[in-house]
Amino acid sequence: MTVRNDEALAVAPPRAIAALLGFAARIPWKRIGIVVGAYAACFVAFAAFSAWQGGNPLTLVQTMLNSSMLNGDALVQTLLRAVPIGFAALAAAIPARAGLVNVGGEGQLILGAVAATGTGLALGSQVPGPLALVATAAAGAIAGAVWAGISAAARVWLGTSESVTSLLMNFVANDIMLFLIYQPWKDPAGSGQPQSRPLPGSVRLGTLFGGQLNIAVFVLFAVAIGMWLVIRRTGWGFALRVVGGNPEAARRNGLPIKSLLLSSMLAGGALAGLGGALNLMGVEGQLQPGVTTTFGYIGFLACFLGRNDPIKATLAALLFSAIALSGNGLQLVEGLDGSIVNVLLGAIVLTMLAIGRKNGERI
Amino acid sequence: MNIVGEVLTTAIPGSVALLYPSLGELISERSGVTNLGTEGAMLAGALSGVAVTIATGNPWLGVLASLVAGAACGALHAGAVVWRRANQLASGLVVWFLALGVTSVLGSPLNGQVIDPLPAVRIPGLADIPGVGPALFDQNPLVYLAYVAVPALWFFITYTRPGLTLRATGERPAVVFASGSHPSVIRFAAVTVGSALAGLGGAQLSIGIVGNWSDDMTNGYGFVAVAVVIFARWSPIGVLIGSYLFGAALAVSSVVQANGIAVNQYLLDALPYAITIVVLVIVSGFGRSNAPESQRDALSETQ
Amino acid sequence: MPDQHHRTTTGSPPTPTLEVRELVKTFGTVRANDGISFTIMPGEVHALLGENGAGKSTLVKSLYGVHQPDSGQILRNGEPVTIHSPATARELGIGMVFQDMRLIPALTVWENVALHLSDTPFALRPRALRARITETSERYGLATHPGRKVEHLSIGEWQRVELVKVLLGGLDMLILDEPTSVLTPQEVSGLFDMVARLKSEGVAIVIITHKLREVRQIADKVTVLRGGRTILSDAPPATLSDDELITAMVGEPVAILEKRSTSAEHATAEPIIGLSGVSVRRVDGDWGLREVSLEVLPGQILGVAGVAGSGQDELSETLLGLRQPHSGTVMLDGAIVELPAVARMRKAGVIAVAPDPIRQFVVPGMSAAQHAALWNAAGSYSFDTRKADADLARRDAAGQLRVVAGSRRMDRLSGGNVQRALLTLALTSPCRVLVASYPTRGLDILTTERTRTLLKELCEAGSAVVLISEDLDELLTLSDRIAVLAGGRLTGIVPAAAADRRSIGELMTGKEAAA
Fold this sequence. Notes:
The complex is a heterotrimer of chains A (363), B (303) and C (515). Chain B is mainly α and 303 residues long. Chain B is built from 12 helices and 2 strands. In chain B, strands 1-2 form a two-stranded antiparallel sheet. Helix content of chain C is 34%, strand content 24%. In chain C, β11 and β12 form a beta hairpin. Classes of the chains: A mainly alpha (363), B mainly alpha (303), C alpha/beta (515). Chains in contact: A-B, A-C, B-C. At the A-B interface, α7, α8, α13 and α15 of A face α3, α4, α10 and α12 of B.
């Protein structure tokens, strides 16, 4: 016996190497290859499209990186823009756990900004700073929750598809905002521009590190981690998974389906509303048309790319933020239309949808 | 002209721009695929219609191009959903997003270029009916085609073998497969054809009504089409009613403005969407859904 | 219509309608069919007997072109054939009625038939087709309504439509996959009359079953499958005893549970749940239950019989507090409860084996241990997966139903494994009332007998069991009393000791008798 063992040891590689080989074998190389290949294919296709539009495919990537990540200011801009996108992604991710589709992130962002503007303008100069700040952000969250709650209530009590109502409510939200800034809230000092008065300083988020960065980014990361924990570690999170996975099983186990569906959608709406408010308090400073241009939809796509996982969705939001921002560089340096980045963004998500995910399941 | 006639005259062409994508969405959903990319197909159709009309001087070639562009968007969505089994809602939204990006880039040189819209063809006799005559029978040919399209689609779905197979595919694809047809092929075809109709709806907007291209000009019509199909309970006749109802809501807002009634423009703009949502909520509150079986959960499907 | 071309001329040696030689079909590493051979002659009724998972369905799906065999030969009237698809099978004159009937509920009968027939023209001709359907229906005694939507048909008519559809396609060989499991005894005899009629026309019939009684009743030959292999081939059933057939199916002799001796001593006990005049509406607006009154007594098994869809699901959901009755009262321990009240009933010790575990129990993406945690939480938000995992092992030791490891994902398990996991949770939980819907459906014989023993023990320990089943023999063996539902009405509650298949069967058709 001992002799045979020794022989075996002699031919077998040392244990550390064996472990390493074992680890290497467990890495899904093929899968990684497919994903990397898919991203590369998207970029190549995008470069070709840009070249057709008069861009230089050779400097394209350089320009995009320069304008989104490779210098401090650009990186800060990417982080700042990730705030609304990331919150919109979380707004889709939480209801998705319960099987609900929140395509209304855009409208919830807008109404969050609207409510924050109203509250900030009303309270800013009368209430002590920190209180006004919190109240303004909270107003945004509440407005987002109410807006999402309408879709959720229609779904829970009347069976109306929440995806369709939340989607259409984006258009209503946008019109509400336009109505406000064209008429009642129009800034008299705005030289005729349709925009609200600027928020008072007390309800603006202070900048950090002497740049433009503000605390909203860190709030986003904290909330993402918090949501990840809530979903994995709490009974509510577990119950949401049951409802989302099989509502009939949830019903038969006595889980309160209606309140779970409602609460998930309210939480999602509140997150998007908070995102809209923080974006306004940190970056925009006043309500104006296009305050969220498609960030809500981009967030929804980021949620899909992150497979409804709060942390992955936030990371996807960062990526999309960088891509969205690189449009500026493409416009200035390459002379391309800025919205060309939407093509890249769409191509990436479509490709990821088409290649699905491991275990044969598809996104 | 009285205000009813005025609303009708504005409403009919706009309703037709909604009717085509709604019929397209109906075909797609009857096969079992929801297509939010309808909005994207409309954008693609609107832009390609204008671009080809400008390039060739022939608006009918523009109409043809809009069908092709719409079909291309549909094929993209169908490819992802049918062959790769991607999530229908996500895939549809992505197709819209792609179309939004592409049309915005390709369309920017065309912004502001004006073409002659499709000419109205007056139908003698009928157009002289007081009140509704001019509204119904002094319109462009795409409007007349729409009059025929609804009964034709109804007959196709109800009384032809391919129509029966289409319905069956939306209900239980496994049974269709057992009967010797291929559900994937049927779905691919249905989504593509449906999307081509959405492209036609886009053309009705751009070369049928306004005669130019502007960025994101469909402004949610394609999404409203999805709602119209639900409202219509998946029947072509219902789609007809729904499209004209929402078309009228759209028309009311522009007529009210034109008549100088002091209501804020943006509140009026919100009206069609608000009405759509309210009607949808009320309709879904009544009775059970008669959606195709494979569609019943599709609109709230996640991963 | 049965095709007359292949009938054998008297005198010459008959050619088999179908001969299968050494058929092999594998799925991944599983050899579902491992060298199967058998022969069917014209005008012969051939029973394929075997447990669930023995490979019967795989075999007939190969014959019908749904699967392609890996190797082996199929001879049709003596000629080797390759059956690429169901369409090819139909061209060859082979028809099949699946167990999960292949009809589309939202379409009418004639539309379903039109979809199936290869000679349907581009423009549908409803009137002509309806006439054809009526003609065939009458010829084979299969009453149908060509213009009605399939979703409004009874399960028996559903099957008759399926048969008419297949017969209209033209055939000289018919495969029936477990055709009797959803029928009343009366409907079964109607089906067998039709089989006899086809047989006299020279049609060869393959019937899949696991019921010995049916084999004896109509089969000329029997082939027994076990673990994908042919154990017995083309044997005349009369030459075999029941024990021999069961041993061939299971691989070992099985002690079949004796009929419980029931006593009346519990009859005076206070009911745990009492329904009085309870009516329940279904989602589609029809009545699910109509003025049902019954009592669930401790220490008793109350059997519930009825054709599928007679109100069994509504009854179990009412007992579990899942549904709000339209009228009538539900009493729990003598006090009226307002339903729905799932959590309250659960707290009072009312638990269930769900009728359709895949749809009603399995949460995709969750492990067996997580399902156990969900079960243990009983409606609260305290889920402890780790504890539930250990608990599951303990339950398995008690239940002996061979449940899988707690870490396995439930949505990746076979139907039988899911059922075993659910039974393990339900049968090893302390309870006062167990509402068990079709607890042995889809199980192998050994697990079935184990489950029945556990149900019996549960009842002997003083729990009340409501046993909803479509297997009349199971109900007669286990129950103290049998309640029979027909069209949502309770047509009778009879002591099991005084009941037999015939009398229960008559109560099951009560709806027709009343109409």
